[in-house]
Amino acid sequence: QLERAAVYIETTLKKAGYTPGRQEYEAGGQRVRNIEVAVANVAEGKRPERIFIVGAHYDSAQGAPGANDNGSGTAAVLELARLLKTVQPAAGTEVRFVFFVNEEPPFFLGEEMGSMQHAAELKRQGLAVEGALVLETMGYYSDAAGSQQLPPGLDGQYPDKGNFIAFVGTIESSGLVRQALAAFQGASDFPAQGLAAPAHTMGVTLSDHSSYNRHGYPALMITDTAFMRYPYYHTAQDTPDKLDYDSMARVVEGLAKTIAALAGATQG
Q1: How many Å is the maximal CA-CA distance in the chain?
Q2: What is the pTM of this model?
């Protein structure tokens, strides 16, 4: 099933006009891969002066179909790659769309985690990542009072209705959180909230952005807040009928403009 997902991603990217690259490695006794494409404005033979990562993991928790975690994030990155195929980032800038394998246990935060492999390779090459935007559980929204849970200590500081998209990072990535949130709010009327908090705050580090943080890169997670809102998290009931596709579309449209703004892009 993991291989079928990988092939689907590669096929979809090819239809959008890309030639997907692979980062292959051994994990759990099998050959697995991250998948990557990019849009860039970098002179031939030169290295990018700054890189933005837009990524999502395409595996799901054991026993869970993974429609929201993380089919929604994967679908969003595929659509962002399609929407931004013809943009031209600012000179020296590259935007990479990356699909990570092995985010879920037993690989989470270990060396065989896909994003950990990806971030480590960027660091080994000495490449400058200005920001990594990780899309994680993007598809569940509710206007019901009390539908949004919050980490301890944050009660009353954010809405109790789970109808917003959240930009979440650690204190060290607070500049990126502010910049990305401001760009999104300038491009979309979809409700959005931002949180930059210490790493020990519940939920703040629970996705692939932590791999980039660990290697010294600014990174954030863009999310519907997963288990703090979504009642079907990591269960067999995480199925496509649970998702709010109209809201997802609005979020993705806003994110396309956000990424273009961060990369200083113009339409090609």
Answers
A1: 55
A2: 0.97
